[in-house]
Batch of 4 targets.
Target 1
Amino acid sequence: MYLPFSKHLHIVTSFFNIYFRKLAPRGELPAMDLEREDATFGLRTLQDLGWKDLLDGFTCTECGRCQEACPAWATGKPLNPKTFIMGVRDMAHEAEAGVPLIPNGAAVRETYGLDDGIRPDLLAKPIVDTAIPYDAVWDCVTCGACVEACPVLIEHVDKIVGLRRNLVLEESRFPQELTAAMRGMEAAGNPWGLPRSTRTDWTRGLPFEVPTVAELATAGRLDEIEVLYWVGCAAAFDERNRKVARAFATCLDAAGVRFAILGQEESCTGDPARRMGNDYVYQILASGNVETLNRYGMGERTIVTACPHCFNVIGNEYGQLGGAFEIVHHSVYLDRLLSSGRLRLAADGVPARSVTYHDPCYLTRYNGIQAEPRDALASAPGVALVEMDRHGRNTFCCGAGGGRMWMEETRGTRINHERTREALSTGADTVAVACPYCMIMLKDGLADAGRGPGTDDPVSIADIAELLAESAVPAKRRLPVLQQG
């Protein structure tokens, strides 16, 4: 009888909170119906929260594991996932006139003669600037470390993105730094705002042809496509990541894989817009991509991408808009090619190197992929893998997720600096990545630490595909297999 009225209420609610946990993929955000006339966009008040969101608040054990795991809090930002959830609980408690929000709350009030008075004014109180500061809403990198660390499976990220949705779609209240990226995605189909005509510039200089799906469809050769390479905006427009695209295409060609790209028909998946809270722009981009992929029958083929963010949104969220696609991350696909013998490597002239691998949050924590990238690295000649203290599902974010790629860090220290420090502490001479965002952030981190190219003691950074491409044996140069008998 004492527990429901004490700070130990979580002992009662923990079982139910875990039992009714989110069963959808962790990287899938709740769907939004923008066509409903009575729709509320995002989360603003307690009335916009679902019963499970409120149960999360009263299940918080205040252990602080989410706080310790949060990269924003660890680098001096005002975001604290623990106090955010506790703030939601306190708001609900206050709105219920001091009576705990439990399923049989009305019966408890009647039994003990308690005042039954829900405060409408408190129910309508904004969550932002009450349970969580406005700045803290935008400090989140949506890495999911808080959710991974929580012993009672509280969902912090979905709520924070819900708050962003309301701020963006209903109040137009968001950091102005994001305006250019949002306009670029809406007008040009990429957050850089660069012309679509430059999407295939990365293919220049390759010793083999990279056909587009449209070209093959016109020639009646769509059946020749084994996989569709989803290039992504970063690999198409960022100069450093263009090298990764060329390296991965080189590996595919060396393995004899028949692949094609969408070229100018490819558009941003909408992941940055959705994590920024602009689901309107996301749905425009995602619906267009779903239509394009379905038109070419790509639901019957395999899509491969080197971007974990593209991988996550196409695989886990496009289903909300009618797109069912089989998508594979390039590290997994490369590991398959190596295991099957289609991709062969030669050790001639490849230097020995110690490599530390940075796990991308959207690949490892959201989608559980951690063994395949390491297996692929282990196959590369001369590579000796050295792990960072925080790796696998406990990886530390690079600082670019959740739209932070297009925002400056003006509070505390930079997240990518902290992750760079961890990478350098291993003593490895190469940092391996499997994400274009991580490539950009850690490249900048190494430069800021004085360990970039041209320094006295440089540490290189390379994508897994680049490490494999430098020793890949082209299929055309392999000796024929002699048959016995």
Target 2
Amino acid sequence: MKTIAMYLPQFHQIPENDIWWGKGFTEWTAVKGAEKLFETHNQPRIPLNQNYYNLLEHDAISWQANLMDKYHVDGVCIYHYWFKDGKRILEKPAENLLRWKDISMPFCFCWANETWSRTWKKLSGTNVWSSLYEVKKQYVENGILLKQSYGREKDWEKHFSYLLPFFKDKRYIKIDGKPVFAIFKPSKIFSLWAMMDFFNTMAKDNGFPGIYTIGMEEKRWGCLDAGCIRQPNSAMVEYSAKNMDVHQSPARYSFEELWKIVQEKKIRHDKIYLTAFVDYDNTPRMGKSGSAIIGVSPERFYENFKKIYHKSLLMENEFVFVNAWNEWGEGMYLEPDEKNKYAYLEYLSKVVEECKNEKREEKDLLEKIYETEAETKLRVKEENMQIERRHDKLLDNWMYLRDLNIDFSSYLKKYGYYTIAIYGTGRLGTHLFYELKNREIKVSYGIDKKFDAVSYPVKVYSPEDQLPEVDAIIITIIDQYAEISKQLCKKVDCSMLPLEEIIEELLLDCQ
């Protein structure tokens, strides 16, 4: 089993950060400016020997690789940024690593697929806000910096083509020959199944048996190979629901209590990876609006990491993730600092050495790891409630677009979809038909399981019928996109578009 540490590439200067946060900004700027906000607050954090490295320098990457090799960190999962229209940022450290073949640093990517907003409150007054990025009629701290949208096949091909040289590198982490590619928030990609099918096809066309995808969310989406419970994020959500400490400024979380939540967390019966965390403190970025964990120590990390490592072995996982290698602005780092020196790395290495020959069948423990049938039913009930909330949010966002007189058909025209069909002829499907009427878009027909019992302005087919050709089918049934798409692809050759995706992209375009 490999120990993989999450890796932040923001320790070098880029033009965008110069504009957003001030000339010369890197992650170190926030780290150096951190303040002690309460008596036991471990701030500011200082790298050992004040090693404020620059990730564009060969020696810095080489130093990290040597540390990893010495202390049994088997590789890093580098945050990868790919925004709307293929905009890249913070890509140079990985691109340099690709060129520097002499550096032995196994790596894979985690696509951090989130829109960047100006929410680092502690830094919001450090620079004159640029009109190039400012969003009108919004507060500065909520301004959009980089928009995350996903496009369609041409955009996906461009993205995969960029990733391909990395996948081909011998150091790139693979499972059964498949490059490992993590996605930070797969739930945000409504056409995820279509995108991953496209990526898999391209991977096979380029000599791989496929691509191994991990969603960094607890749910394993059907089109992905695995899920991953990100920590301390998951535990902090549960802790917040039960404790008043989070209402302080900054919010405070007990290290011991968070790890207790992690250790007691039941795992769904699926392929799920586990994450250990070192610490957490984002006050260098957020100031008093931030959060910090208290009661942290290398010894407690050792005790808890060993349990997670052992549990991952019992689950026969290929990886255990550690958050993080160098998230200095969020207090999550294995790298040596002035306070603890190499203690975290030494304890991590100790766990790996101790557990090398410890794997054994422990049926009783395995039964405690996974959900009971009753717990699964409760979780499914909550997930169904979340789908209902998504339905309400979709309608609310749709009405907002109408208030702004946004042309709904602009998304379809952008991708050349002029003749469409609508799957689901209920309320959403009916609203959609009239939304597109007289908009240069022809709604050719509807599709519905109850095709013989619905009243609709155009002909309605059964999903079992052979369907007439159209440019695209818009699916209005929430959270069933993959299943519906697979069924319809057998009947007609066209693009499948989730209604949620269209509305989300139109919202993004108007910001």
Target 3
Amino acid sequence: MTAVGNVAAVHADLPFVCFAAQDWWYHSRGHSEVQLMVQLARRHPVLLVNSIGMRLPLPGRSTQPLRRVARKLSSLRHGLCRIEPDRLWVLSPVSLPVPGRPRLHAATAAMVRAQVTRAMRRVGISDPVIVVTIPTAWDVVAPMARRALLYNRADRHSAMPGVDRTAVGGREQELLRRADRVLYASRAFMDEEAAMVGDRGVFLDHGVDLDHFRPDPGAGEPPDLASIPRPRVGFFGIIDEYTVDVGLLERVALGVPEAQLVLIGDATVPLDRLRSLPNVHHLGPRPYAEIPHYGRGFDVGLMPWLRNDWIRAANPIKLKEYLALGLPVVSTDYPEVHRYRHVVTVTPSAEAFVDAVRARLADRGPGTPADRRAAVAGATWQARARELEAVVADVLAARASR
């Protein structure tokens, strides 16, 4: 199965439990599993389980370990919360991410499963469709009663630095074998695993909130952005060690000195050298609600990805957000970006990336702002949620016919 077919209806009371790779309380809510569950909660009861992690935040093995611990502890304070106005509940379970230590991981999985089961009882969910994004949730999910199991293969988590690749990779393999359907946002990634997954593989593209990320020429700029002169080339999102090429950002700042480089988002890697440049402005993280106000103030949107296994299997949502804003976009090369070559400049090297930034500041191409927004016009999260419902309907129908 290479793509989602006709959307079929599923009963509005069909419950979903999603084990997310993100945390509702401190990650961007633009991530795919969060957006999909928010949309599903308009029609279904949904329990979103915050990330149970894949690696202990220890010095020398992960960046900013104390900060990571502090924000997880802050998340735990929320416990189980209902997110109004829809039927969405968010659970922050107590967990210890130690997939490479089998006995301790098994005990943690049992502890998390007990918390999830208790939360399901409290909110009236039983026999749900289970969606797993983070592979370490497999040990939690394996014995749970469910109507269907979907593996949201949004990323190659075993390629994340600092994880126990054998342990995490093993759980990825279990999910690939045992899931009723495996959802891929990257066609290249789906093709790579086709021999194992077969017709259980489904391409479910990422979406974008078109209302949130919309051009608004009359809107004023946030004061901290308005104080930065134009032209501005910008990036919004987390700057971490396995996705963003900080050296490439430095080359842009040095190679296009007439432009101001604006960075919006948290950083989990040192940026002292980059911040020391006179035309670099790291404004730090901003709430998801405010991101479009900053993005509209960019003259060019940057996709400065590293060339690694993580990115090759990825389909960054940021591309659709930039295009929805109508921005010219310069990107490094990765498989999924080629679907948008008519409205995105894709570059093969660091030198070409810098040259392309300069060119896009001059000509504002390829395409027009309207062309770019049209390229993602059908990619709403509402549409993606309906496609996900169709996948579930297909699984349930197949089971009923046996």
Target 4
Amino acid sequence: MKTFSRGGVHPPENKLSATTGIQALPPPQSVKIPLSQHLGVPAKPAVNKGDMVRVGQIIASGDGFVSSNIHSSVSGKVLKIDNELDPTGYKRPCIVIEVSGDDWMETIDQSTKLVKETNSEPESIISKIREAGIVGLGGATFPSHVKLSVPRGKKAEYLIVNGVECEPFLTADHALMLEKGEEIMVGTQILKKALKVKKALIGIENNKQDAIRHMADLARNYDGIEVFALKVKYPQGGEKQLIKALLDMEVPSGGLPVDVGAVAFNVGTVFAVYEAVQKNKPLFERVVTVTGTSVRNPSNFRARIGTPISALIEASGGMPEDTGKILLGGPMMGKAVGDIAIPVIKGTSGILLMPGIESKRRKIQPCIRCAKCITVCPMGLEPYLLMPLSEKSMFDRLEENKVLDCIECGSCSYICPASRPLLDYIRLGKANVSKLIRTRKSQ
């Protein structure tokens, strides 16, 4: 069975919400919509305090090529544009809207009828995707129109569709494939057209047999789309690992997937592309998994951007009494948050409520040079070395040891018998090396 060749771990899957389907969450009383929900330059407000807005209306414009438009997820009155707590843990610019009714822009097709055919040319497709504010929904939040704009001198030959969802606990993509598989197929055809490629490969981990069967059955009716069952191994859903598994090609150090002729999108992003191009619907809602071993009703919700995560927690049975930590994302790559008033954003794939006994860090011990972190690193790095280099602010050596190649999968921290916070320090080191490189380029 196909998989990547280097590293990887097998954490417990805990797909507790795999069979729950997708439930639509009603709009809350108010939303806080951050102006930075994507990699790149934050969007600039296109509305003012006191303005009335409708669902799907643009409220902030992507400022620069690597940026993304932001649309209202609700209808109502703009209460303020101010710094509010967001998932980063910092107060950053947000547009706060008081909800009244649910009035959608008339340009949006709200019907559930499948629209298969598209006459749009590649440039028009990319323009629609940019206007709709679509970003990578697998967590990276890279603006999709940028990824579709293949650099001069490079050529895309394969479209990779990522349905792996290897992160433990999360099931949003699984549920989406089961309920919106046909739309994902049409979205895949649209992206093939935008990239001018003939072949699309959809990768799904082998623990989602129902999704594999369903997507494979649908693919028979679409030219150039093939579905592959992949070995269950984390981080199979990493972009570079998925390309290795499906194409047996290595993305070079510091390189991009397009360097080997591949462009990859998450299934959630592909569905959003379908809605943007075929339904004129901007990205203002997404599927979010709410889960945890103590959660009463682990669920997948379709939630409006800006909805406080407290509303999703309440809809899944409320906060368990033994909750010790709340993560946005899964247990491997997710980040802890300290306030349930923070909003759902475009990159919110899951909300994991961890019991206190599971969330406590073990005492950090000295490194015993067992090399397990090297063995499991899918990028071939040396985490045991990168951590002390980051601790000692030896950023030049960090750069030499390719710290920027780290995909932050957390496999090293997971496997470490000494309970060393390897990923935490590597993330810190990456941030400082990136800053160093930006400073060097500006001189």
